[in-house]
Automatic annotation (TrEMBL):
Recorded name of the encoding gene: hmp
Species this protein is from: Sulfobacillus thermotolerans
UniProt remark on cofactor binding: Binds 1 heme b (iron(II)-protoporphyrin IX) group per subunit. Binds 1 FAD per subunit.
Alphabetic keyword roster: Dioxygenase, FAD, Flavoprotein, Heme, Iron, Metal-binding, NAD, NADP, Oxidoreductase, Oxygen transport, Transport
Region (Reductase): 149-405
Protein name: Flavohemoprotein
Active site: 95 (charge relay system), 137 (charge relay system)
């Protein structure tokens, strides 16, 4: 446990972290990769280039300092990040390396303001927080390996089928190369792939949502090909999967992980709100919910730019036609020719509060997934409709960020 003196010192750094947090975390990652190049095999370098990982870590440090009196308040974040760490292969031996470089970056950026007392207090705080991560992640590693069909680390899977779902989304059906059983998963979880791309010095590890129904003899992941935009190049791994991975190829896969899941036994109405490829974890949830309770009251509203980039149309139409309790609606921002004639097309434009007010039950549970601006808009719209934050659940693809507009 931390002494009150140590806690007071940590709390005194809150304004400093608010001002200099991203500078500290940017320098931290630079130091880490210079001193330990092997860490490049674990961390997503695309998120590094975009500054997303630095921002997420800065926010985590700020939250830790802010809640140091009640550190248990950040345990939900520890569990969420722990799932990603377990999928990526972060181990206890990595934490001292991370701590050493983080404290060195703090001292380097803050200069004389980083007194021995401050660095000492943060060293104690880091040791405690790292211990929480290690304990949570060790339990996750044990559970992943000991469950029926489970395994430790990465396991080779064969691409048995590759299906183009839209102009930008492709599904990969994966079966274990050894022919053994595979672990089941909670609807909404993801797989972590370890990919060796020819010409690159380091492996690439990415999380991809499971889009099928749990309990099958295979896994299905559905991947959006990330195209160049806003000055950023094509997505490294998604482009490789789309263009260079074929039926019969082998992919290295970690056991399912993730805490964005649906309890199918809930008696409350469920509303799914997806944008673009955000449909993938919600589709798994929908399949599972309807398999458990075919009469469950469900509303599914999907937003896409237009029909050519809208995946799983036939699959969703089949579910809607066989389950009268499922209300399915499509909103295209810029519908193309014939898009407005599609089954379940609701309107052109975007999903907003007035539209949702005609579709939802206020007592429902809401599950949201899509690009950050989409999720921000959905959370704001639900807030306008007086939906309690406790009823709203969402998933980020990538480092955790703020949904406050």
């Amino acid at each position: 446990m931390l002494s009150q003196t140590t806690k007071d010192i940590i709390k005194s750094t809150v304004p400093v972290l608010e001002m200099h947090g991203e500078h500290i975390t940017t320098r931290f990652y630079e130091r880490l990769f210079d001193n330990e190049p092997s860490m490049l095999d674990i961390f997503n370098q695309t998120n590094q280039r975009r500054g997303q990982q630095q921002t997420a870590l800065a926010n985590a440090l700020y939250a830790a300092a802010l809640h140091i009196d009640h550190i248990e308040d950040i345990l939900p974040v520890v569990r969420q990040v722990g799932h990603k760490h377990r999928g990526l292969g972060v181990k206890p031996e990595h934490y001292p390396i991370i701590g050493e470089n983080l404290l060195a970056a703090m001292k380097e950026v803050l200069g004389d303001a980083a007194t021995d007392d401050i660095i000492g207090a943060w060293a104690q705080a880091y040791e405690m927080i790292a211990g929480a991560f290690i304990d949570v992640e060790q339990a996750m590693y044990t559970q992943a390996a000991s469950q029926h069909g489970g395994w430790d680390g990465f396991r080779p899977f064969v691409v048995k089928k590759k299906v183009q779902e839209s102009d930008v989304i492709t599904s990969f059906y994966l079966e274990p190369q050894d022919g053994g059983a595979i672990a089941t998963y909670e609807p909404g979880q993801y797989l972590t792939l370890k990919v060796n791309i020819p010409g690159l010095a380091h492996t690439q590890r990415r999380h991809y949502s499971l889009s099928g129904q749990p309990g099958q003899s295979h896994y299905r992941i559905s991947v959006k090909r990330e195209e160049a935009h806003d000055g950023w190049p094509d997505g490294l791994v998604s482009t490789y999967l789309h263009r260079q991975v074929h039926v019969g190829d082998i992919l290295e896969v970690a056991a399912p992980a993730g805490d964005f899941t649906l309890d199918v036994t809930t008696p409350r109405p469920i509303v799914f709100l997806s944008g673009g490829v955000g449909m993938t974890p919600l589709l798994s949830m929908l399949h599972s919910l309807l398999a458990y309770d075919p009469e469950h009251e469900v509303t599914y509203v999907h937003a896409a730019l237009h029909g050519r980039v809208h995946a799983f149309q036939t699959e969703m139409e089949s579910l809607a036609s066989t389950h009268p309790s499922l209300r399915y609606a499509i909103v295209y921002e810029n519908p193309e020719k014939d898009d407005t004639e599609r089954a379940h097309f609701l309107r052109a434009g975007r999903i907003d509060a007035p539209l949702l007010s005609t579709l939802i039950a206020p007592e429902a549970e809401f599950y949201i997934c899509g690009p950050q601006p989409f999720m921000q808009a959905m959370v704001a719209a639900l807030s306008q409709l007086n939906v309690s934050p406790d009823q709203i659940h969402y998933e980020f693809f990538g480092p955790q960020r703020s949904l406050t507009a």
